[in-house]
Amino acid sequence: MPGPSNYRYEPFSDISSGVALTERHLIPATSPYIVRLNEVPQKNSPSTMTVKEITDVNGAATTYGSTFDEVAANPSANQFWPDYNTGADGNDNWNTGLLQFNSADAGKLIEVSYTGTGTLASVKANRYPAWWTDRGDGSDGDVTLTNGATLNSGAYRNVFIPAGVSVNLQAGCTHVKCTGTFICDGTINGNGKGAAGGATYSTSGVTRASNPGGLGENSASGSNGTGSGASAMSLGRKYTGAMPEELQNFIENFSSIPIIYGGGGSSGYDGNNPGNYGGAGGGGIVIVAKNAKISGTISVNGLSGNHAENAGGDGGGGGILVIAETVIDNGTYSHTGGYNGWHKIIEMGVM
After folding, report:
1. Quick one: which of 322, 289, 320 has its CA closest to 182?
2. Three-state SS sequence of 158-227
3. pLDDT digits (tens, 9 = 90+) for 245-296
4. What gap in Å lies between CA 98 and CA 109, rounded to an integer?
5. Tens digit of pLDDT for each residue in 1-43?
6. DSSP designation for 245
7. Which of 6, 49, 88, 238 has its CA 20 to 30 A from that of 124?
C-alpha cells in the first residue's frame, strides 16, 4: 500500500494531526458505488465521521434526508463502509479515503464531515492530463444560482442550478472548476455567447469574414449566406454531427484547459451589393469537477444571421465539455448552428 504523503503532522507529540472538513459527493450510479474523499479521514473510536443525504439545495438553505450508519463491512442501504485497511507506514489509523455504499443509494448527493489528515502517496492517478484533475482551490465557495444570473468562470467548492432556474454563460468560454459537486437541474444558456458575426457592410470590396471560434477558424466570406461560422474546436475543419474520434483524442492530449466556443457567421456579399450581418457563434463551457450531475439543459447554439437578400451566415455551434470522477448524466444538450458544435461528458471513475 502507498505510504503517507502531504499529511498533517504535530511534531511535539509525534503524531499526525487533522482538521475538520465537510465535502459533498455523488454516490456513483454504477458499481462499486465508491466515493473518494479529498483527504484521508482520521480513525477514531467511536467514529467522528458523519454522512448525510442531501435532498435539496436552495439558496443558503440545505435540506437533509437520512443520516447513514457506519459499518465494518458490506454496507446495506443507508449505510457506508470506510476503508481502513491500508496498513500504510505500519499504522492502521491511515485510511484510503474510500467510502463504499450500497447500490440502493446510487445517485444520491451526500455531505461528509470528517477529520482530514492529508493524503496518501499514489492516490492521484497519472493516466489523465493534469488539467483533468485540476479542480481549483474552492476559493469561490458554494454557489446556488438564481434565475437570470450569470455563471462565471471560477474555482468553486460546489455549484447548484436548481430546477426551473435559467442562467447565462459569460461571453467566450466559461471555465468552471469544482472541488466538490456541480449540479445542473435547471438551464444553462450560452446561445450566441461565442465569436461575433460579420457586420452589415454598405460598400463592396471589404473582407466579410467574422471572428474565429475558440480553437476554430475564421468563417469565409459568404455569397448569400454561405459563410457560416466554424463549430467550436474545429481543428481547422468545419464538422457537423457527432464529435469525431480525432477530436476526442485532441481533448485527451491537450496540455491545458481548452478554450471552446463557436465561430461567427460571415456577412453576406454577392460581389457588388451590400450584405446582411452574420450570426454570433455559440458560447462554450468546460466543467472540471469531483462530481457532476446534469439533469437539466445546456444550450450553446449559434445564432442565425440576417437571411434577407445577400444573407449573412449563421454562427457556429459551441462546445460543452464535462470531466469528473463521478457523473450522473440525464441532461439535454443543444449546440446547433451554421456548423454544429458538440458536447462530451467524461467520467474518469474514482481514482
Report:
1. 289
2. EEEECCCCEEEECCCEEEEEEEEEEEECCEEECCCCCCCCCCCECCCCCCCCCCCCECCCCCCCECCCCC
3. 655 666 666 777 888 888 887 777 666 666 677 888 899 999 999 999 999 9
4. 16
5. 454 555 565 555 555 567 888 888 989 888 889 888 888 787 7
6. H
7. 49
